[in-house]
Amino acid sequence: MANFENITIEKGMYQTKGGLTSALEALDPSENYAGTALEGLDAFSRQLKRFDIRVSGRGSDCVEKFFQSSNSAALFPEYVSRAVRQGMERADILPNLVATVTDIEGMDYRSIVSAPSEDDKSLKIVNEGAYIPQTTVTTRENLVKLHKRGRMLVASYEALRFQRLDLFTVTLNQIGAYIARAQLKDAIGVLVNGDGNNNAASNVSVATSGSLVYGDLVKLWAGLSPYELNTILAPTAEMEKILGMTQMQDANAGLDFQGTGKMVTPLGATLLHAPEMTSGTVIGLDKNCALEMVQAGGVVTDYDKLIDRQLERAAITCTAGFSKIFTEAAKTLS
């Protein structure tokens, strides 16, 4: 039965596979709480309840509540990581670009590639006893480049001890947003320039240099075939041009935007604003097969310093990289 109130929490749990939450779940499975008042909480949330730590809302506790015992202090780095991840998720548009996410435990990763010729793409009739065409899958020549992105949290326990956790969470959310934007910039770089395996995106030229008209988007749609144009990335200046097109100013579309906040999408594609992009360029892609995200460990918080030294200087990092899957599944328009 429930034993969450009797668990000894140690910082060594962060070194287990899956981190503190996985270690707590192994000792205190959530399935044991089906049909109880604690159903829906994971093992970490039950520990917050055990120590009566409220991290959100008007009645949130102060930071010092975590440091009333060694057990509760060991929960603090996980709270920090979760708040950073929350900020990443709010600011993150990568799920609209990435076909698959690969989690690795090391730092070296080599993706796979299938580069069929036009003849290979055609599914020909196979007569009885005849040779069946092959699709060859090989590993990439170069490793995926992983980049560590993060922030150094610099503060003393004395400076923060009386600060409310909901306010501190806002700061941590913003750190997560910084990391998400940096990763988006990495992803855009790989989509445009390739991942070092001679697979940069080909370009579709606009009709008139410096301008962008609806016909250019149609050219981008046609140029991406046989892949589906379902996502368009554009910097601020190009977003203004696209939204200013006559075709984007349909009366019904305007009502939808005013009522739901959803923008009209050109050619049925999801239109995403990416200020990180170079002005003058638009990216069109098939999100189902263009990009792979490779990440090592998710959000990592320097738990030793947060527990033993009570903040001081603690690194919050996330290591990830990107790899092109099908080269022609993304094209640029400029």
Q: Helix and strand layout, with pairings?
A:
Blueprint: H1 19-27, H2 43-50, H3 70-73, H4 76-91, E1 100-104, E2 112-113, H5 118-121, E3 138-139, E4 146-156, H6 157-160, H7 165-193, E5 203-204, H8 214-224, E6 231-234, H9 236-243, H10 251-260, E7 270-273, E8 282-285, E9 291-301, H11 303-308, E10 311-324, E11 330-333
Parallel strand pairs: 1-9, 5-11, 6-7
Antiparallel strand pairs: 2-3, 4-10, 6-8, 8-11, 9-10
Helix pairs in contact: 4-7
Question: Your description of this structure?
Answer:
- Helix content is about 35%, strand content about 20%.
- The protein has helices spanning about 20-25, 45-50, 70-75, 75-90, 120, 155-160, 165-195, 215-225, 235-245, 250-260, 305-310; strands at about 100-105, 110-115, 140, 145-155, 205, 230-235, 270-275, 280-285, 290-300, 310-325, 330-334.
- The chain has a domain at about 5-90 and about 145-185 and about 300-320.
- The mean pLDDT is about 85.
- The longest helix has 29 residues, at about 165-195.
- The N and C termini lie far apart (about 60 Å).
- It has a five-stranded mixed beta sheet with strand order 5-11-8-6-7.
- With about 325 residues, it is an alpha/beta fold.
- α4 (about 75-90) crosses α7.
Report the sheet with the most strands, covering strand number, pairing sense and barrel closure.
5 strands, mixed
What is the total tally of β strands?
11
Helicity range = 25-40%
Identify the quaternary structure here.
single chain
The share of residues in extended strands comes to 15-25%
**Mean pLDDT, as a whole number?**
86
Gyration radius from CA atoms, angstroms = 24 Å
One letter per element, helices H and strands E, the order comes to HHHHEEHEEHHEHEHHEEEHEE
What is the spatial order of strands in the main beta sheet? Answer: 5-11-8-6-7
- Cα shape: globular
Low-pLDDT regions = none
Structural class: alpha/beta
Number of helices: 11
Distance between the termini: 62 Å
